[in-house]
Amino acid sequence: MACASEDGAQHFATKSISILPLYYGPLVKIRIKPSNDEYAISKDLLCTNSPVFSAMFKGPFKESQQMIAELEEMEYVVSVRSVQALIQWLYCRTVKFSINDPGERITAALELVRLADKYIIVGIEAQMAQYIREIIVANPHPIATLYGSRRDTNTYWIAHEHIISASYLRRGHPVRQILATACVSGYLHHKFFKEAEEYPSFAADLLLEVKSTLGRPNSKPAGTFEDPITGRIFELRK
């Protein structure tokens, strides 16, 4: 199957019909409210991957008559960007975000997995968790890079909103887990106490990861731990 993987999700979602002639009709449309951005996609492709959309377009609902599903924008879930990315993933099983800022790339990945979760589309979780991990590893704290490895390097681009958004995913979701794992070093360096206090589900995930990390048998010096994301050795702050 042809796939313009070098293009970002925005270009792909707009041009998918001409790029991928393999998928002929019937086509359905996804319209995002209130912006009225609209995208065409193979009905069979969408319904095969989502029981929610299948019920819409094959059941006794207006969507099956009009062949249009209207999705209301929902912060950190339904957006033009997340729908564009979902369309690219459905066709190519990969997503490329045309975003430079590492923190915003994490936001986009979270939006995508929460949109997929909302419409019961499976198979994207591990890929996006790995994508977030790669962002974290490739973009450490600039001061930590300058002065060595004794500082938390994972959480420079992880925002309060990322933690909140991930907490809405099911327990054990790979993206929720990778963010908790990434926050271990930050928590042990006195970071994210407020989030752990305000969001019990995040606190539970974080404490499980802390226990797992500190409980691993090793020959490292006392007062140190091995970061579960990068494998680097850190000193515990007192």
Automatic annotation (TrEMBL):
InterPro entries linked to this entry: BTB/POZ_dom, SKP1/BTB/POZ_sf
Domain BTB: 28-99
PANTHER family referenced in this protein's UniProt entry, alphabetically: BTB DOMAIN-CONTAINING PROTEIN, BTB DOMAIN-CONTAINING PROTEIN-RELATED
UniProt name for this protein: BTB domain-containing protein
Organism: Penicillium angulare
